[in-house]
Amino acid sequence: MENLDETDYQVVILWHCHYNYYNAMLQQSKEATHAFPTNENLKIFLAVANISTNRVQETLQISADLIESDESKLAGLLIKNAAHRLNGNKDRTIISQIDAKIRDERRKANYTSLIRAAIVLLLLKKFDKAKEYAERSYKLNSQDLDVLMINNWIDLNYSERMNNNYFSSINKEHSRRLNVLLSTAKFHQHNDSCEQAILILNALIVRYPKLCLPLIEKMICQLSCKDWDQVLDTANRILSIDANNLDAIKAKIIVTLCRDGDYSSGMKNIQLFLRNLLAAEPKNVEIIINNVQLFSRIINRDEETLNELIKIMEKLIQQNSNVCEPMIELGNIFLLMNKIKESEHWFRNAIRIDESSFSALMGLAHCQVLDKSPGAVELARQQLDFLMEIQTNSLDPRLYFMSSKLCHNDSSKALNYLTMALKLILKNVENLSYSYEYLTKLNPDFCLEIVNEYLAHSPTAMAENNDKTFENNKEQSTILILLNKIIDAYPAYGAALLMLAKVNMQNGDYEEALNALKKLLDTVDPTNVMAHLLIAKIFALQGNYQLASQSLEVGLSYNFKVRDEFLYHLIDGIVEKSDGNFDASINSLRTAMTLMDNKIINNDLYSTNISISDKATLYLELILAYGKLKKFDEANALMSEAKMQFINTMEEGRIMIANAELCLETGDIEKAINYLNDIQAEEPYYLQAHTKLAQIHLHQRKDRHAFAKCFRELVKHCPGSKTYSMLGDAYMAIQEPDRAIEAYEESLKNNPMDKILANKMGKALIKTHQYDRAINYYKDIVKNKGCGDLKLDMAELFMRMKQFDKAETSLVQELQDGRMANDQLNLEMRVKQLILLAKVQERADKINMSITTLKEAKEMQIRYVQRTATGSGIIEQKKILAEICLKMADHCTIIRDFDGAIVHYKDALQYKSGDVNALLSLAKLYMQVNDLDRGAQSCTALLNADPNNEAASVMMADLAFRKVDFETAAYHFRQLLLRRPTYWTALARLIEVSRRTGNIGDLDEWLSRAEAATEASNRDAGFYYCSGLRDWRTGKLNSALRHFNAARRDPEWGQQAIYNMIEICLDPDDDSALSSEAFNEEDVEYQDSRTMALKTAQRLLQELNPKGSPHEMLTHRLLGNFFLLSTKLKTNIERALQDCTALASQETLRDHVGPALGLATAHILLKQTPRARNHLKRVAKNIWTFEDAEYLERCWLLLAEIYVQSNKYELANELLRKVVQHNATCVRAHELSGYIAEREQNYREAAALYSQAWKFGGKTKLSVGYKLAYCCLKSKKYADAIQGCNEVLRQNSDFPRIRKEILEKSINSIRT
């Protein structure tokens, strides 16, 4: 022991007394009085130490000495009084005389006498009396150190609040004394300033290196902060000084049990602690019982440890057979082990010793409550009524708990009792910091019993009616507060985390339940079977049956005994039902029912935790499964059983609703309605029943008014925010948004901060086109905190109203305000804001700004994904990231930044591999930039990801088409059409391919197959488009126009149909501008039809609505110019020339064939052929591409005609061969080639070429028919010449010159 002075000894002895170490207190007192024999205070400490250790004679001797001293006389009399009472002195006269002397002495006592008396009362744990004496002493002398310290000690350790700051009165000369510093440290600890307390204690540890007291106080301080590692370090340091130190071993037990959950090591430490405690304090019943109580409440009912505690208690009972407290505690331990008979035996023994022992009577009542024998329940109820009567002021939580156990058929009453029990426990620990006392009073094991009983009586969240919601929320809040306190105090208590998950599940908060279960599996016990089962249950409730099945498998892999669990088979049955395996589902559910019945028979409720809700779920799932198999007899029989089982319980309404659903299955709608109407407004499931009733009126009876009436009744009987909101939803469902707004307004009065409700209100206002009111509403509501989603809705409304500046301003302001926040929720919100901002900028034609915004959104989303790391949400978050990349790629494509677009598409595939949209867009882009090999790779990857993807098959065909491999392209298209004859995109492409290969003979067959696959009354626009395309490409222009006209209103095919109609109207006979001038100028009929065609083209041009893509905008503009050229008016030609020049001057269109064709055509019409030739020669060497094919071929034809006019036949033939290579049905190319052969007098070849032109033109272009007949005549094919003449004359009997010059000559030639 350190060299301590008199006051130091006093504080050490007082400390031992405070923690009930009475033997140690006695030893310290003897040592102190030996060192300072004249010190009166130390004699007082020694006397009280003797009382505390039942040494009455020694106490009386010391008290006699103290009474001789004037200043110690009062203290001596108090000690003498306590000794006589302890000794059981039946001579009341002696005690009365002592009491009279005490009263007399107290009246004339000075401050020293009073403070010494206060010390006695303090040591005897009579705190109120001690406080009274100490305060009187303080009034007499407020500067004395002993007065100040005793007052301070009483306030710090035994008062709920500090009445006075006694430290301010202590002189500086005393400020470094052990008692002052220790009290100061206690003061800081009392005020939750643990760091300050530890600093002071560290100074004491340095000054008294061999004294354990400051180290123990430091350890207690660290324990109150739950600084587990530091507690262990300090405990080990104490044990290095004193190997048997009880406080150090006890602290290690708490860390081992509460932090680590290591019950095996905990038991060994408990054995060591109790062995040392019995050696140090062999007759100290109080401290042994206090520690046994503590350990029994935090060992999670570990059987080995409980058996060890039983041995200690039995030994204590042997040594103290006339004391009831050890027997009571032993009875409590047997209760924890569910050994009711043994428990009852010890409680009865305790009552024999002390008939008035409340704890013993309460323990006996508990045994009677759990006793299932006849008459036990009534006996228990009488006992509880008696206990309630005798302890009206401060009821024990166990009384309320036991009362709830007796309320089997009255869940509401049971829940009230349980709530009161929970509140009492919370009140008991309200002003305590974390300590041994805190854990004992919190009693985690008992708390879980209460919560478990609460779950057995409480309905699920969906059963709550609106009028009871507030009250139920308060009850649930109390439970959650208590459970979180337990988990905070006892992090390794897996049972508490399980219970927290169950409570959250019952409340419908599945996310919080999952968090609790994941915490249990991650930090406490990864093999916990029940946790895996509950996770499976949550997934099943959420409809994630695959994840539920996986969780069951994981639980089974840890422990095959999971198959003995009721819940395992219940969830397995639900999963099987979701897969459509109803027979297997019934087998699993039947097994669950058998297990449940066995558990109830064996009274094994605590270990199974089968709630009334789970029991109801089992019955309902089984009934539903029978219903699905149409086994209605079995379903009805089970329903009757369920009605009996759940009569007068919280779940009765749920059974009634299920009965109504069963009636619906059998088609008995009236009976279903009657069942639902039987559920009254005050019953738990009224809200669900009336909602179901409303759905029947809407969907089965088609009665919208009755549907709305149901919700109006809900509001009438259960008025509140929830029901008004439901009424609003109902009005929205039947398209009455004005009335919905009124309902939402009522709902918002009760719950103005509900963001979901505010969102509904905003949407209703928008639905009624009250945009200004909606904007004002949003402006008001977003002034509140946490309205990020509503601000997004407001910005979206601005965008919808095309107020892009306001939308952008509000979003930018939000982004600025939240730039410092860096948590996950804010990151998620910022991503949403940036995505919407990018959308606004896109609508405002700020594409580059939109791309920049999306880049920032991408960076934010990457950070969010990195923080999420794992979990079910990571896949969804990566999908969002992929969508951002896809949007950026689309924007880059619009501004023709193809390299950037390709990078973004690849990024999207990185975050969402195999994404069909990304692969499809990437393939299209590769085709657009003419990188056909990579395009093919993307298509192959797409087909691997989705073998039946028709768009990919079309693209593979297009790739072959672009590579001028028309046969392969046609093969792909035919394969698609064999699978789906009405795949119009493939059919349109096949027509184009057939046109270019010249194999147009089988097109009628494919169209016939498509026609057969569609109904005549319901023909698709795609069919008309394809029919028009076939007719156009085979020269049937009037029929083509009719079919295109039928498709022109369609959103998918309409635009292209209109483009094709304009092309036909502008160039109906496929004659170029160069030749039409000379050939048809005098034909008045042609002039009339031509005027009509041009007017039609003009009207169609005005009807066109290009959708913003650069390609569509350019095509529309070029068609406008070609229309101007087709009028052949000089002013129009010059306008077209000017616009085409402007287009050709653009950097991106410098080598585009469209503007070049327009320029060349304009120059030809203006008789400026050399200029036209220069423009055409510039683009003639362009590589043939699918997009530019039509314009390029027309350029080649126009240049060929110029060469023909200049007699440059070789150059013309070279161009015409290129045209025919890419478009085998080009009438004009064959006609020009025939013309060249004819000029070269190669009539046989000319006839063959004219024959192709005549055939592919649909034999409608009579000038070609005339030339064919003429060349046949010249090549002496008279029969062919006659046939050609007849075909022309059948269409026009007055065709000039053909009859006389060719037909008659051919006939004469055959005759001769």
Automatic annotation (TrEMBL):
The keyword Repeat applies. GO terms for cellular component: cilium; intraciliary transport particle A. Keywords: Repeat, TPR repeat. It comes from the Eukaryota. Residues 13-232 form the Tetratricopeptide repeat protein 21A/21B N-terminal ARM repeat domain. Pfam families: ARM_TT21, ARM_TT21_2nd, ARM_TT21_4th, ARM_TT21_5th, ARM_TT21_C, ARM_TT21_N, TPR_8. Residues 950-1066 form the Tetratricopeptide repeat protein 21A/21B fifth ARM repeats domain. Residues 269-542 form the Tetratricopeptide repeat protein 21A/21B second ARM domain. The keyword Electron transport does not apply. Residues 1096-1306 form the Tetratricopeptide repeat protein 21A/21B C-terminal ARM domain. Belongs to the TTC21 family. PANTHER family: STI2 PROTEIN-RELATED, TETRATRICOPEPTIDE REPEAT PROTEIN 21 HOMOLOG. This is Tetratricopeptide repeat protein 21B. It comes from Microctonus hyperodae.
